[in-house]
Structure formats: C-alpha cells, structure tokens
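TL;DR need structure tokens for one chain.
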Amino acid sequence: MGYRLGINLGFAINKYIEPEEWTRIVSQDLELKYVQFVADLLNPFLPGDYINAQVSRIKSATKHYGIYIESLFTSAFTRVNHLMHPDEEARRIWLNWFKRFLELGSEFGAKNLGSHFGILTFRDYNDESRRKHLIEQGVKGWQELSFYAKELGYECLIFEPMSVPREMANTVEETKQLLDMVNANSGVPMKVCLDIGHAPNPDERDPYPWIEQLAQISPVIHVQQTVLNKSNHAPFTAEANKDGIIKVNKVMEAV
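>> reply
TL;DR here they are.
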C-alpha cells in the first residue's frame, strides 16, 4: 500500500483564500500535490452562482499546478453542532448543507468527505435521554448522507475523533461504536479521519495506540507535532520536534 503526504487547507483560511494563491503555495512552496479542501474556503451556504464561478476558478488553478482535491472537510468556522443540533429544523438545514458540500466535492473528484461526528450542547450532553436521542439523530443523518454520497461516486465518508466527550469519539471504543452504528445501514462506509495530535480521554492520551487500532480505517490521517496530554497543533520544526512525541518512523511503524 502506498501513502501520500498532503495538506489540509485550513492554513489558507482568511490568509490565502485566492485559489491561484493556495494552489501555488501547495505546489511550489510545500512541493505537495494532494489537499483536503475545507468548507471555510467555499461555504455551501453561499449563492449557487458564486459557488459555480469559484468552482471553475479552483478547477483551473488546481489543473495548472497539478493539485488533486481528494478529500473535503469542515474547519474552524464550521465547527458547530451540525447533525446533533438541539433543534430539528437546524439539523435538517445542516443535512442539506452537507448534501451541497458533497455535490461541491464531486465537482472536484473528491473520494471522501467528512467532519466531526456531531457536537452536543452542555444541556443535551448532561441529559441522558436527550444525549441518546441526538446521537441517534446524528447516526440517521450520516446514514442518509452515505447513500447520497454513493450516488455521487464517493468511496466513503469520514469523521474525526475529538478531544472531549461532548464533541464525540474521545475514546477508541466510542469511535468504533459510532462506526458500527452508521455502517449498520450505509450507502458508502463511514470511516475515520484520525488526528494524532488530539488529546482525548484522560486514559487514552498516547496517540500511538489510536494509530495502531484505527489507521486501517482512516483514509486520511491528520499529522501534527504535539506533546503528551495536550492538543498542541505544532508544526514539524526543529524547535517543536525537540519535545514533540510524533516521530515519523514510529508513526509509520504504527500504521
């Protein structure tokens, strides 16, 4: 099996939003070909005519620099409750938003699309019956999206295990449970977008067991330099690497 190094385009938000600029940076400065496009660069809530014009511009720039958009993901400004919002109407709005995001990604030839699984408010998380109900709603939402993704030619959907229980999947076991729940009735499979820099459950801080148990079902892995017990989100500079626990050989051995 081959592995490809790419980059999540979160770095470009509000700094390098011009398609011609972020594609140039990825290709010439970073010497990469593969990117995970983020919704904050082209939010599906925007008017259709504007989206169509930007899609054409992005496709032209990626073709010019030989960039492949293989994956789509939510990002900083779209880290909200989504499919586990307390209001049913809002959940339906976000479900349709994800469908438009899937349509957008199909224009780029993306193979997968994802986000965090869902986020509970404190009020809903602390109410056991509400928590159970909204997890069920989240599962149903992702299942509906999986069949739409299949129609559009995607290989899978992905979600990112987060660092706190309220944001879902902060243990390996819970991650596997959510996968099983969605995949019990899915069009394309739900898989994982593992982030090895997250510091999840206090009993599961070490990122390497996460890699060993979930890499085989993670078509995308977010790699960042970090330290134990903290979501550090540091770059791989000489300074950060001194104390960092992410070592390339150790990561690849775990994979």
